[in-house]
Amino acid sequence: MTVQPKITRGHSACPHDCPSTCALDVEVIDGKTIGRIHGSRDNSYTAGVICAKVARYAERIHHPDRLLHPLKRTGPKGSGRFERISWDEALDTVAERFRAVEAEHGPEAVWPYYYAGTMGLVMRDGINRLRHVKKYSGQFSTICTTSAWTGYIAGTGLLAGADPREMAKSDCVVIWGTNAVHTQVNVMTHALRARKERGAKIVAIDIYMNATMKQADMALLVKPGTDGALACAVMHVLFRDSHADRAYLAQYTDCPEELEAHLKTRTPEWAAAVTGLAVEEIEAFARLLGERPRAYFRLGYGFARQRNGSVNMHAALSVPAVLGAWQYEGGGAFHSNSGVYGWRKTMIEGLDALDRSVRQLDQSQIGRVLTGDAEALRGGGPVKALLIQNTNPVSVAPEQELVKRGFAREDLFVCVHEQFMTETALMADIVLPATMFLEHDDLYQAGGQQHILLGPKLVEPPGECRSNHEVIAALAERLGAEHPGFAMSPRELIDWTLENSKRGKLAELEENRWIDIQPPFRRAHFLDGFNWPDGKFRFKPDWTKVPAPRSGLFGPHETMPALPDHWTAIETADERHPFRLATSPARNFLNSSFTETPTSAQKEGGRPELFIHPQDAAASGIEDGMLVAIGNSRGTVRLHARLYDGVRRGVLIAESIWPNASFVDGRGINTLTGADQVAPYGGAAFHDNRVWLRRAEQIRA
């Protein structure tokens, strides 16, 4: 008689770097392994829907290639030659090397480096507690949000917006600069509900005909970096055709008359020449908005990953203000709710030990930092030791050739705490095996919605895997770093953070599974004023004083336009580099996560490909499936051509991020991306690259 396994249902939250932060129901088999993962139907935002890659998470958590034991490098860096060691030997070695570096070069020569491989507050941010107590170099996180957040906050004064569930109550949902089908599927859940129940129209604006564009009623295919021009032309038409809500503008905005005068020359004809759209498309979009002022603008990160990204985000955000859309349920705009949580993270991050005189190194410029660039080092000495959690910079950081060169330094000690032998782990001296989200307790906040969620431990970790918190606490003990947070368990840290942030207690969150903190309608729609002293939306922001995360002023901030406009600060194509390249998100990967799971790689076609317009391909003698080369001053990458008429001529798309080893030369797509800091507060312009394109045999490998 066959004994059926006992399946129970646990509850968790998705830990990955996606705005949806889905509430999850997890099949736990015999208390040891997991089966299928489902989106929680009880959660009003997740609404029972999650992406396929997380639904099949059993393939990842039970993967045979997971790291299970501490390892010490025995061969050259990158050789993959390691030997198994004990946890005590591994931690003692790390602590010994850190102490030696600190003694010779000072504490700033040690750089704890992390990002969003997990979005749990305890496991992601606890590394900062060790940083602050030990006075190690700080990290200014610029690789994802900086330019987008700055552009949004420039208008509203706060990183918040209309309840994203209100998309279902809209008459027109504008999905701008985000391929939601790939990156935040719940946006489509609520937008499609609006179409079904209200006859709403869905407008998608992007730089190639991706899965979201194909589901839209109106798909506007713009050239990269030209979104500000489209926004200006739409506002021009709204003023011209009496669809601007002048009463709203007078009450809630700073300079509507000046904006209207400025937009007189920003006609659809002007914008068509900039964006590549037809005049008729721009007019039709503006007319649709004028007829449906209950319009919800879901603004993503994609169009802000340009050197003019903050300006473009602010310009797009200005459209619903001109329309007066904020007045309506189902209207207004949204980018992230990260500004509404009000966390006290003193115990998690050790903020009471923060010394603001310690230098802040730019996360995106890790290649420049590790190769001794004086400006990137902020005038200080070299980085001699790295502790890396939750990120894979050898694959995901820009200027990859510099990054590789930096990691290859023999005088650089690197400890990587990871789940798989990533390309960064391959360059480490010590590799430590890490837990996954169902194997530890953590606390999550959503960015793309409004819930605080609990992610409790549901299964035991395999082998000798330890959580980020365990590793940080163990190193702190060996390094003599003292802080109450090191002695607390993850559950105690969660409880302290909830209570001191006035969000109740862990026991209450555990019972309820999540807390809905969506602000009331009037506050979320800024109907009592925007978050500026005068309560006015800023069409004319002071770009040097936007209350967004910052570590200084960077890029050509002096030339940023005063009012919404097309700002030509992008890396424009030229005679030598006639193509623009964007590294847009793949559906089955999430940055470099999930690239290790067979189903995800198979569904992505098994190899990196470059989307090329057939006419561009023909002009270069390129056929479908052919090995091609693209390059610029940062390097050369070879990958296979995929002819696709859903891109504009002169635009190339490489859906990413494939491991470097998946490319024929071992050089990944971020070989071509730049790490120059964009205006005004920094950030990485991953979708803003000019390149040349040739048949692979026409260049040297």
UniProtKB/TrEMBL annotation:
Family annotation (SUPFAM superfamilies): ADC-like, Formate dehydrogenase/DMSO reductase, domains 1-3
Keyword Iron-sulfur applies: yes
Source organism (scientific name): Chelatococcus sambhunathii
Matches recorded under InterPro entries: Asp_de-COase-like_dom_sf, MoPterin_dinucl-bd_dom, Mopterin_OxRdtase, Mopterin_OxRdtase_4Fe-4S_dom, Prok_Mopterin_Oxidored, YoaE_C
CDD domains xref list: MopB_3, MopB_CT_3
Domain of life: Bacteria
Similarity section: Belongs to the prokaryotic molybdopterin-containing oxidoreductase family.
PROSITE patterns from the UniProt entry: 4FE4S_MOW_BIS_MGD
One matching Pfam family: Molybdopterin
Domain 4Fe-4S Mo/W bis-MGD-type residue range list: 7-65
Protein's UniProt name: Anaerobic selenocysteine-containing dehydrogenase
